[in-house]
Amino acid sequence: MTVKRLKLAGKEFVILSRRDYVSMRDRLKIRTAKLPGKAKHKMSRQDYGDVAEAKRRLADPNDREWSLADVKRELGF
Description:
The protein is α+β, with helices and mostly antiparallel strands. It has a domain at about 1-35. About 50% of the residues lie in helices and about 15% in strands. The protein has helices at about 20-35, 45-60, 70-75; strands at about 5-10, 10-15. A two-stranded antiparallel sheet has the order 1-2. The chain is elongated, with a radius of gyration of 27 Å.
């Protein structure tokens, strides 16, 4: 692998042949494909339903979280 380092405006760059670049890119694709948890997940109908339910709950002004101060005030503490 032939690599040439170049410094322009205080930034360091690396120049390498296209063949080496393609080889490195392909090895990276293979390596990342084998990592667990990196696979693309397609959303199921259940996932879409969960998202819709969460959005509906966030939009509903009557369905809100109560702070401790609100609970104390409501109960008269």
